[in-house]
Design brief:
The protein has about 450 residues and is α/β, with parallel strands linked by helices. Helix content is about 40%, strand content about 20%. It folds into 2 domains: about 140 residues, Aspartate Aminotransferase, domain 1; about 270 residues, Type I PLP-dependent aspartate aminotransferase-like (Major domain) (Aspartate Aminotransferase, domain 2). The N terminus is likely disordered.
Length: about 450
């Protein structure tokens, strides 16, 4: 068996890398039979909003390395913080020990979070942040003497991760339907319909959604532990938007029926919607707040579940009482990840306070709308903050394409030829660039995506 030396892997020929990849890798959310039929791309380095492959080709990272990158690749300030920390210690357990960066990050997250969210439990990805929130809620109600509160309510098309608790709390049949027999019982209410571009609401219907939720809480509230949703934008559902005021109304219903509110800000948090946290916009104070992805700006795995002092105190007692929260991960509170998160939050605060992010969001929405509103092959467009989606459709009122046409993937392959890295959701294209993308780069993004769309449509019609 050949031994691959990591220090020379970047010098290996592309054909050899392709062979190793196809022979030994199993990529996430990827049909490997399809993947093997497409040209492989091996990322070698990054700078700002750009990525280079091993053959020297440059691409605009238009999905922010799966929605994580905030400040661009190879950011000098974050690099410096990481290099300084790695000379001290790379990892130390957080089980029964602390370290300065973990303490500082917990304090910083409490400072920027709404209301009484004063306690942070660290993990390493969004699914685990959600699992922790669910387990905390379940155990809290047990400790309060109401163990019958064990149901979770989610929103239609909700996606909260791929671990079993996160799957059960969501309503994402396309991703998780085959696992239904193994998931715990939950409830779902319909999501609002809302089309919005650059802050302008064109259509919305939240009353049906809120009415359904109210009836559900009235009839089953005594058995419901928590409600979970992705505030503002349901990202994996295709950037489905919620109208202003919706989240505040959901919060009021949760308070009225004594149900925990869990906000999954794994995607929308850390500047993605234009504010530091999505719940800030409507002054909503959840019982649990889940952060990941942008928390470390695309550098290292880290997640946090924030909760209140009142929840924390319910778990206090002697060791033999069994009230403690028995949950943890090997790399909980990793010092390298914590130092990156602290530096990233500092940079996010500067980006927001300077109004630079606000200006970028406005230009992003303006150029997006100009490029795709009314396009003959775009059925619907959605945008909020630094996130957007276009739903592709055949022209001339034809029926939708069969799923095996893989039109979204074909558009993304054409975009790749034009220096864009994007990822489709079936026949929708999700656009999530780094927060620091420039006006010139936004122009490049939408001009080349529009050209790629035309090229893909031309091939389909031949």
């Amino acid at each position: 068996m050949a031994i691959v030396q990591t220090d020379t892997a970047s010098e290996t020929s592309k054909s050899t890398l392709d062979q190793w990849d196809i022979s030994h890798s199993w990529h996430p959310f990827t049909q490997m039979q399809e993947y093997a039929s497409l040209p492989q791309l091996h990322v070698d380095r990054g700078e700002g909003c750009w990525i280079w492959d091993t053959e020297g080709n440059r691409y605009l990272d238009a999905n922010a390395s799966i929605w994580t990158n905030a400040h661009g690749h190879n950011d000098p300030e974050i690099n410096a913080a990481l290099k300084a920390q790695i000379d001290k210690i790379a990892h130390s357990t957080y089980l029964g020990l602390s370290h300065p960066l973990g303490a500082a990050l917990g304090k910083k997250l409490a400072d920027i979070s709404p209301g009484a969210l004063s306690r942070a439990i660290f993990s390493d990805n969004g699914s685990n942040a959600v699992e922790i929130a669910l387990k905390l809620s379940f155990q809290y109600w047990q400790l309060q003497g109401t163990p019958e509160k064990r149901l979770v309510v989610g929103m239609q098309n909700g996606y909260h991760g791929d671990t079993f608790g996160a799957m059960a709390a969501g309503d994402s049949q396309g991703f998780h339907g085959r696992f239904d027999p193994w998931l715990f019982e939950s409830r779902a209410f319909s999501s609002p319909i809302c089309e919005e571009v650059n802050g302008q609401v064109f259509f919305q219907d939240s009353e049906k959604s809120l009415s359904e939720l109210e009836i559900l809480l009235e009839t089953e509230g005594a058995s419901i532990a928590a409600l979970i949703l992705e505030p503002s934008i349901q990202g994996p559902a295709g950037m489905r938007l919620q109208p202003q005021g919706f989240l505040k109304a959901v919060e009021a219903l949760c308070r009225r029926f004594e149900v925990h509110l869990i906000l999954d800000e794994v995607f929308v948090g850390c500047g993605r919607t234009g504010s530091l946290l999505a719940c800030d916009v409507e002054s909503v104070e959840p019982d649990f707040l889940c952060l990941a992805k942008g928390l470390t700006a695309g550098y290292l795995p880290l997640a946090a579940t924030l909760t209140s002092e009142s929840v924390y105190e319910a778990f206090l007692g002697s060791f033999e009482s069994g009230r403690g929260f028995f949950h943890g991960h090997t790399f909980t509170g990793n010092p390298l990840a914590a130092c990156v998160a602290l530096k990233s939050i500092e940079k996010l605060e500067r980006l927001i306070d300077s109004k630079r992010l606000e200006s970028t969001v406005a230009y992003f929405g303006e150029r997006f709308d100009a490029a795709f509103r009314g396009h003959p092959n775009v059925g619907e467009i959605r945008q909020r903050g630094m996130a957007a989606a276009i739903d592709l459709c055949p022209d001339s009122g034809r029926d939708p394409w069969p799923i095996d046409e893989r039109v979204g993937m074909k558009v993304c392959i054409e975009a790749r030829k034009r220096g864009l890295l994007l990822r489709p959701l079936l026949d929708s294209i999700l656009i999530v660039p780094p927060l620091v993308i420039s006006a010139e780069e936004i122009d490049f993004l939408f001009e080349n995506l529009k050209t790629a769309l035309s090229a893909a449509m031309k091939k389909l019609s031949n």
